[in-house]
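Weekly modeling sync, notes
Attendees: AB, CL, MP (scribe)

Item 1: holo prediction request
CL wants a bound-state model with S-adenosylmethionine before deciding which constructs to order. AB pointed out that an apo prediction alone won't tell us much about the pocket. Agreed to run with the ligand included and paste results into these notes for async review.

Input as submitted:
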Amino acid sequence: MDVVAALNDTQHAFDGVAPAYHQSNIENALIEGMRRQMWRAVETYVPRGGHLLDLGCGPGTDDVAFAARGYRVTAIDWSPAMVNEARRRVSAHRVEDRVTVMHLGIQEMEWLRPATFDAVCSNLGPLNCVPDLDKAARSVAERVRLGGVLVASVIGRVCPWEIGVYAARRDWARLRVRFARGLTAVPLEGRTVWTRYYAPAAFERAFADAGFALVERHAMGLFAPPPYLQAFAQRHPRLVAMLQGLDEIAGGWPGLRSMGDHFLVVMRRE
Ligand SMILES: C[S@@+](CC[C@H](N)C(=O)[O-])C[C@H]1O[C@@H](n2cnc3c(N)ncnc32)[C@H](O)[C@@H]1O
């Protein structure tokens, strides 16, 4: 796959969904559950007042929340339409003094000053869209101060719900998607997002080689279903709330923490 063409396809796909993205996400209890876990990790590992770099910020949902919690944020995204949405949201919440939104790909981080940030965060899979994770990891390492952290939620390979759903439908091609090697085409409203699925160990290796050490990892969407099963979650809200609680308790246990729709990883720059 030609890397430039892949990046362009992905940009085009996210441009297409940008206007409705924030609203549809906040109406999805499964995404909201994952977001809560990410925010809690940031609050645990980054002192208030710290400067965050948000990679693949989308429509700025997290950035407004981070600003409300006392952080300064530099937010970047590769989709110009997402950047517009994020700027609009930041301005509507009057947090322009704390949040700067830039149209910049993760693959272009050299435009940002080195060793500036207390933490780099990335929520709900932007790092899965990067063609060269080793290069991105080195760039992240150069931009976070020593002792700073990476807090990222990443789309994983082994999602038991997904395996169950597609096995029940006998849709073996769809079931195999997460096990593909390299960038794989994932449809998004008629367009294509080029995505690389990671086993946590492979993702963490790229950052370990760049100078990070693992602090913690937690499965997300392991007992709770993945976000695209929103209709199921709407029919069974109490059951899903219970499963989300189980994710929060048991998602960090050895064995379980390598699975799930996403995994949340915290690594420290040494
Ligand atoms: C699933 S969305 C998540 C958005 C946001 N982090 C959130 O939690 O709502 C993925 C985002 O990553 C962005 N993205 C994809 N590839 C990127 C790249 N190479 N550089 C920067 N952003 C990218 C997309 O434009 C999109 O906004």
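Recorded for review: The chain has a mean pLDDT of 97.
Action items: CL to compare against the apo run; MP to circulate these notes.
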